[in-house]
Amino acid sequence: MLRVDRHANRRSHWLWVVGGSIVVLVGRLAWLQLALPEERQQAERNTVRRLEVLPPRGLLRDRHGRIWVSNMPLFNIFLVPRELGNVDTALLTRVFDLSRRDLEQRFRQAVQFSRTKPSLFFRQLAFERYAALMEQSWRQTGFSAQLLHVRRYLYPVGAHFLGYLSEVTPEEIARAEGRYTQGNLIGRSGIESYYERFLAGRKGYRFVVVDAMGRELYPYRGGTYDLPPQLGLDLVLTVDADLQAFAESLFYGKAGALVAIEPSSGEILCAVSAPTYDPNLLSGPNLSANWQHLQNAGRFPLYNRVVQAMYPPGSTFKLLNALIALQENTLTENLYYPCALGYLRNRGKPACHAHPTPLALAEAIQHSCNAYFASVYTDFLHHPIYQGSIELAYARWRDYMLYFGVGRRLGVDIPSEKPGFLPKRDYYDRLYGKGRWNAFTIISNSIGQGEVLMTPLQMANAMCIIANRGYYVRPHFLKGVYGQEHAPIAYFDTLRVPIDPAHFETVIKGMRLAVEAGTGYTAYVPGLDLCGKTGTAQNPHGRDHSLFVGFAPADKPRIAIAVVVENAGWGATWAAPIASLVVERYLTGKVSRPHLVKAIQEANLLP
User: Exposed, middle or buried, 108 (CB in 10 Å: 0-12/13-18/19+)?
Assistant: First the structure.
């Protein structure tokens, strides 16, 4: 009996020991869960990994809703050195297309960054290579992937205004407050940059449980903490992709720019900067090499001449000078001026070509008489209403030009727009001396050959003002959000110039005459009702530039256009026929002179 009791006591003792241990363990777990949440969270962080989910970038569509710029999946590969195991060098060199030496260098860079944190190991890996890596992920540990959306251009045109994407810089990451991290892409120019916040959307996150080797096991807590990404908006552009492709084809073998705008809305219908390039070159893993190649290429194909090149406007500038003089009553439409192959009051300068003389305003525009507009400019700046003050007269003239958009940025919705150049009075004071200049000193401004410089966009916008008889809508590339027509994300204001609408009719009459039987005759197409003005801009660096500006039809205009062909001579030779083809294609959907299209496309005007 005593022996039984002794065994019973011994069993009771062990039961107390085991029971106590269980209580301690349970208490410890409860303490970790409830009393020390910081330690619990740290334990979870050791097994839970937060992964970024980048949303597809918003698509870009042309004015008819056709997809122009879509997305293509690539993968950024990240490495956590501490989790690296079973390194298959042959596999990795094959997947990443790297030499063994380059592969080892990347491993060292990852270790230098952090042994425990993921760092970007390889950028923009194609899907088939990513699949080959993932097939071996069960033993080739330490790597993780991030789905990336790069651009694919279904219409390989419009590179300069569409822009491109590239990887964010460390400085941009620091300023982004978490919006961007290493390896993310950002709009670098054009539409992609200007509307970045709408196109990019907002990244999401998912939380996954990983094992000791960093391999993904399952969603943390069933995905209840995941944050879905916010998709980027699909944007509709004002540009007609077919018209853009046609216009670009006319600039093969040429340098220059073309801008066409719908006058009533300010919507840019096409915008050509030549030479250009296939925008697909600046998308994907070869971006850096292709960008460097384009950067070093001749004639600067990366340079957006539409908004950055500043040209003398040549004789196209006469239209604005006429309107200002009409408004200030220093000129009437029936005032005649003579021409003797040049401006007699200034010893024949500027020179002029043979044409009927004397001329009134409309006929002076028709024949582009230099002497006539030199007289207009002189009589304006020296008119008695300015009390003999050339400074006061010039300031008045300059104010009008600013209204016309000369010498200032128009605010188009792509970056890097240049203001052109419109000298202030102190510019001439420094150049000639205060009180030592007058209308004859700066007479070249009368025909657009002085110091004034304009971008092609400004030239086309000036045509919108004339076409609208006194106002313009700020030119822009964004038409709206696809499928959300009543949700505008940008406002484009309407601006008026202080010119009586009646004065525009005389100028427009002269522009019609110029195309039908004047210097712009090479732009004439029956039934098109194109109003225009040629220009031949002197170029100190080589042959003259060929210019043409205009709009059509004369009443209720649907398209305004400006064309600059560098080093191409007379405005009527190249710019005018190119402009007429684009206008005809837009208004009628076809061209009536296929032989001219072929001749222009095959002409190489580059040195």
Answer: exposed
Domains of the chain: 51-237 (3.90.1310.10), 241-284+294-477+493-602 (3.40.710.10)
Fill in the amino acid letter for 581.
L
Q: Percentages helix, strand, coil for the chain, rounded to the nearest 5?
A: 40, 20, 40
- Rounded Cα gap, residues 417 and 423, in angstroms: 18
> 329: phi > 0 → left, psi -120 to 50 → alpha, else beta; which?
left
Residues 6+ apart with CB under 8 A from 368: 315, 318, 514, 518, 519, 533, 534
- Give the span between the Cα atoms of 320 and 470, in whole angstroms: 12
- Give CA–CA dist 446/448, Å, rounded: 6
pLDDT value for 5? 52
Q: What is the pLDDT of residues 59-84, one digit of tens each?
A: 999 999 999 999 999 988 888 888 88
In the numeric block, the tokens 């009646």 are attached to 502
Extract the tokens encoding 467: 């076409």
Average pLDDT of span 494-519: 97
Query: Residue 562 region, left (φ>0) first, then alpha (ψ -120 to 50), else beta?
Result: beta
For residue 37, is pLDDT > 60? no
Strand, coil or helix: 442: coil
Structural tokens at position 393: 């007269």
Nearest-angstrom CA–CA distance, 112 and 543: 56
CA distance 589 to 596: 16
Q: In the beta sheet, which residues pair with residue 531?
A: 551
